[in-house]
Amino acid sequence: MSFLEFITYTGIFVFALAGAFKARTFKMDVFGGIVLAFVTAYGGGTLRDLLIGIKPVNWINDNVALGLVFAGTAFTFLLRENVNRFKRIIFYTDAIGLGLFTAWGIEVALRNGLNDVYALVMGVITATFGGLIADILCSAIPNLLKKGELYATACAIGGVAYLLLKKIPMEYNINLTVCILIVVGIRIYSKRKRLMLPDI
What we know:
The chain is mainly α. Helix content is 72%, strand content 0%.
């Protein structure tokens, strides 16, 4: 298994956890948990593949990835404690998922011939649109659009760093790791310090 595949599968599991935990906060049943886990894990990557023209989309015939979604949902279902105790876990899993999927989305786009600018856009879409769709299904304001949430901004900064690092002779896996750490770091730091973009 390559490092990129490891990132992909880890991101799927982490986002599936985040989606299933979100379903619990809205008091959904197991089916609702599976739907939100699936949408959170696959929504952004599916949209990216459709925009780029990748056929079939990334999750078709990938039994490992599908199994990870069910595993994330089952883990959340078996964890019977009150979800309020796990709000911090939800936040951190979501932040880690953002970093993992930003790197994955950019690399997939680059390998399919997109230039750096559009690869960056695809990375942000991959990382954020699954959560956006899940929030819409829950009739909640998406984190992507909330004031005071450096959500897509964190992905964009990490993605720019990744693209710049590709211009210099550096180990490929290091580039991916740096991108992930930057996205996660900015997301966590901005939340703690309540950093936000200026109003329009």
